[in-house]
Amino acid sequence: MIGPIVGVLFDGFAYGMLLFLLSVGLSVTLGLMNFVNLAHCGFAMLGGYVTVTLMNDLHWPFFATLPVAFLAAAAASVVLERALYRRLYRASDLDQVLLTIGIAFISVAVAAYYFGTTQQPIEMPPYLRGSTTLLGVNFASYRLFLVGVALVVTLLLIAGLEYTRFGAQVRAAVDNQRMARGMGINVDATFAATFALGSGLAGLGGALAIEIVGLDPVFAFTYLVYVLIVVSVGGLGSIAGSFAAATLIGISDIAGKYYVPELGAFLIYLVMVAVLMWRPAGLFGRR
Amino acid sequence: MIPQSGNRFSDKIMRRQDAMANTAGAAKPQLYLRSLSRWRPIEIAFWLATLLPFVLFPDYLSLASQIAIAALFALSLDLILGYAGIVSLGHAAFFGIGAYTAGLFSKFVWGELFSGMLVAAAMAALVGYASSFIIARFRHLTLIMITLGLGLLLHEAANSANWLTGGSDGLQGVQAWPLLGLFKFDLYGTTAYAYSLAVLFFVFLAARRLINSPFGLSLRGIRENWMRMPAIGAASRAHIRKIYTISAAIAGIAGALIAQTTKTVSLEALSFERSADVLVMLVLGGAGRLYGGLIGALIFLVARDRFSGIAPQFWYFWIGIMLVAVVIFLPNGILGGLSNILSRRNRS
Amino acid sequence: MKLSRIAAASLLASAMGIAAAQAQDTLKIGVILPYSGQFADTATQLDAGIKLYMKQHGDTVAGKKIEVIRKDVGGIAPPVAKRLAEELVVRDKVDILAGFVLTPNAIAACGVSAEAKKLMVIMNAATSIITEKSPYCTRTSFTLPMVTQTLGAWAAKNGVKKAYTMAADYAPGHDAEQGFITGLKAGGGEIIGSVRMAVANPDFSAYVQRAKDINPESIFVFVPAGAQPAAFGKAIAERGIDTKKIRVMGAGELTDDSALKQMGDAALGIITAWNYDHNHNSKMNKDFVAAFKKDNNGVNPNFLAVGGYDGMHLIYEAVKKTKGKLDADSLIGAVKGMKWESPRGPMSIDPETRDVISTIYIRRVQKVGGQLVNVEVDRIPNVKDPVKAAMKK
User: Fold this and answer.
1) Residue B183's closest chain C neighbor by CA?
2) Do A112 and B313 touch (CB under 8 A)?
3) A127 in a structural domain
4) Region of poorest pLDDT, from A101-110, A243-252, B12-21
5) Inter-chain CB proximity A276 and B146 less than 8 Å
6) Which pTM does this prediction carry?
7) Neighbouring residues of C221: CB distance < 8 A, sequence distance ≥ 6
8) Is residue A18 part of a domain?
9) Residue A234 has pLDDT above 60, yes or no
10) How many other CB atoms are found less than 10 A from the CB of residue A183?
């Protein structure tokens, strides 16, 4: 009897890890730079389309496409950051919302124009298909892989922010921008790099998401709500928070659907509202 | 600093600074409020212009009617967002409650319009008042996400209660009696526009009066500094609860209008897209200046209609470009941007 | 005063048929589809069907030049659908309303069709009651109960005694589930459990595990088209459900071409009932598929494309039959009882209900030449909408 439950919880955890990859970048930009980037999922979508194109048209192996998806999203975000976002760092939240919604609209239309409106199929390599049975529990190979990637990314991010020079600069810039400038830190460049990193992770998330949730031009909007939920529940700017929130949302969603399917559609929102009423700044929020 | 003549949009942008200056220093805030509530020629021109579609675009009255309804909805959001600083991504909840209440009322009681609208407004106000106790406790992203969550929960609940709402097929059997017993709702949308416009105008008058009252002034104070207002004796939370309830009622009226003029009610009235669209319209027009929502709804919906006529599949692109251009060239929305430009020109 | 005069004039004009005042030699068709947003792909397919028919049969029929005016409704938005229908009638002076992927939009437009007296051709929306909302409404797709009730009856006849149902928790899901249950029970089968699944649902593992715990001999599934069928198929494989031991059945969207490509071998053995598949073996269908693929980057046509294609056929034939008379009464009269050969097989319009009658195919996913294919294993000819049949009794 335990077997199926462990399997379901694991699926929930893997789903949570997908949400984590999609949302951690937004948490960082929103928390550290105070910039409301609703086009975040557009970068994820870009990563997805890069992977699809490389695999289906140029016959690249799946793994080789992942770094390209990351880089493409990061590069696109740098272009946008330099051209548009930068102007609005000091503008009102509402203007930021309008700008980034506009960019998301554009990304949807461009994707529909170039790739058509169909769901994009990709074929995973054989070792990522099917499932492995361990102690009588079914673990889907792809989800194992997804969890692995997410854990590696988390460790790298935490280590990077805690122990590298760049991490120290980011933390300094966030804690006290003026002071950081005074110490000779190039705050603008630090922010641009942070932004690129966050968007790149979204691109990676988008590429990894295709196998689980599919990919079509409205991806930029479909997952925005989920991403915002993870970010707010986790607490702005906290990597550990996003990780915890994504896990909580993924597992409670799946477990809820398993035990009380009548509440299946409500659960994720109930959890969010409950957490925010209990801790308005999110699980790991600092306010 | 009291504006001398009232014929410029720029008066409105200066209002915020004026509010600060006057409440702080002026001995007679009444004078300031009175100057605000004076009708400017451009406002009168605006409302006269709303009558033009009857003459100039008789084929576009259905669209005009839906623009008027969207404008009313945006106005309701402006009251909380523009004046009290409450950003909501779940405002469609009240629009939907109004639509479903009016629809069900017409189905089970009768199809008389005004009674249906009042019941819808009352229901939305009731739910608004109940939820305002939650709303008043939060700010910023938390507030946005809680409004979003509550809105989505209501959407799911309406889907589940398909014995009442008809679920995703929509509510069947909505009826609407002729306006004033005389004018049937016709294919041209003539009656629909006349009705929507009249309701928009009267609600606007009420909202304008409210905003230019001491209560409206303290709301703006809350927007500017939430923590300090209680220190000068204004009860922030009570004020927020009050304006939130009023805003919910107006959103409910807008919902009732869409139900009555189209005789359709569906889950879309409660959807996240509707909440997001109205926010975009308001911010596009310019929040916190009463006319922003009206202008935003007009421009957004006309642009959408035109663009989707040209490219039904790719109009998102042009709308996106328009939003980006507005942010870059006219920050603080169209009205905000225009008044900035005008005041800069006047100064030089 | 002015108001009432315009209103009266408009009513009069619409009642007389505005087309009369228009140029006599054009036939205007207003097509309302969700060209943008979440359902954009349905519009792409359906519209491609419309375009292909016009390309093959010319844009003139019975001396009338056909003009198609396309409007985007942008998703589920009945007020917009109603407004667009009104505008098409009063501003663009269309003679026929067509398209409609989504039920709530179709119902809203039916009000306009009835009031303005315009023929309305539903090319997809599959809820039974829609065609009852206007006396000028007809349909060239299918109804969900037509598909699922037929599947239920077929299953009962073919050894399924006990089934577990899993349906998306929204109106089409409820219709599909109800249809299957009715069909199965009428044949002596039994439902051993049901679950309704959240509509916006990216991950099915929890629901599939619930089904597996019960270990039913068969499962009936209904999920919305798009990304979900593939996700469901993968969940079946990941949770270790063996489609050889547990029969998995559903409506044809579950094993639509794009879904099959993503599911891979997990789809093997799934049984579906549907009105059309691009592998249907007939000369007409082979030509249709070849022409369609040529125009659409090698994408196979699906049920939406054939719905649009047949919808245009219906319009062309009706106008031929009325010799160019475009008033709704003549057109709907011409439509009633019309029979033709479609890429999907023989089909006709029920003279009593104005609804579609067509063959429903039972298919099983198999591997043919290395490709996953819906192989027809049975066919039930001349299926009518069972809900309307039941209402009459």
Assistant:
1) C4
2) yes
3) no
4) B12-21
5) yes
6) 0.90
7) C165, C166, C167, C232, C248, C249, C250, C254
8) yes
9) yes
10) 12
Spell out which residues of chain A touch residue C43, defining contact as CB-CB under 8 Å: 117
Are the CB atoms for B149 and A272 separated by under 8 Å? yes
pLDDT of residue A140: 84
Position A134 in a domain:
no
A29-43, B38-52, B94-108, C9-23: which has the minimum mean pLDDT? Answer: C9-23
The total of structural domains in chain A comes to: 1
Q: What is the pLDDT of residue A214?
A: 86
ipTM: 0.90
Contacting B residues, span 45-74, partner chain C, CB-CB under 8 Å: 54, 58-60, 62-63, 66
Quote the minimal CA–CA distance from B314 to chain C in Å. Answer: 7
3-class state of residue B233 by DSSP: coil
* Domains within chain C, CATH numbers bracketed: 2-142+283-354 (3.40.50.2300), 145-274+360-392 (3.40.50.2300)
> For A99, which of B148, B150, B323 is closest by C-beta distance?
B323
Spatial distance between the Cα atoms of C117 and C119, rounded to a whole number of angstroms: 7
Round to whole Å and give the CA distance between A137 and C166.
23
Whole-number Cα distances in Å, B268 to B47, B97, B259, C79, C228? 30, 12, 12, 9, 21
Q: How far is CA C225 from CA A170, A221, B160, B228, C20, in A?
A: 44, 18, 20, 53, 41
Domain containing residue B328: 10-24+57-347
> Nearest-CA neighbor of B343 among B3, B14, B41?
B14
State the Cα torsion B137-B142-B148-B154 to the nearest 10°: -40
> Which of A119, A140, A255 lies at the smallest CB-CB distance from C262?
A119
Range of the domain at A190: 2-122+140-278
The CATH number of the domain holding residue B197 is: 1.10.3470
- Show residues of chain A in contact with C75, CB under 8 Å: none
User: Cα separation of A282 and A30, whole Å?
Assistant: 13
Q: Would B63 be classed as within a structural domain?
A: yes
Yes or no, beta carbons of C87 and B258 under 8 Å apart:
no
The C-alpha atoms of residue A106 and residue A221 are separated, in whole angstroms, by 12
In a domain? residue A241: yes
DSSP string for C340-381: EEETTEEEEE-TTT--EEEEEEEEEEEEETTEEEEEEEEEEE
Contact B262, C83 (CB under 8 A): yes
Structure tokens, A48: 């997805």
Contacts of B140 (CB under 8 A, 6+ apart): none
In a domain, B38, yes or no: no
Question: Is A8 in contact with C226 (Cβ distance < 8 A)?
Answer: no
Instruction: Note whether B145 and A269 are within 8 A (CB).
Output: no
Pairing of strands C137-139, C190-197: unpaired
Q: How far is C149 from chain A (nearest CA, A)?
A: 25
Q: Do A106 and B321 touch (CB under 8 A)?
A: yes
Q: Between vectors from CA B32 to CA B26 and to CA B33, what angle results, nearest 5°?
A: 135
Neighbours of C66 (CB within 10 A): 20
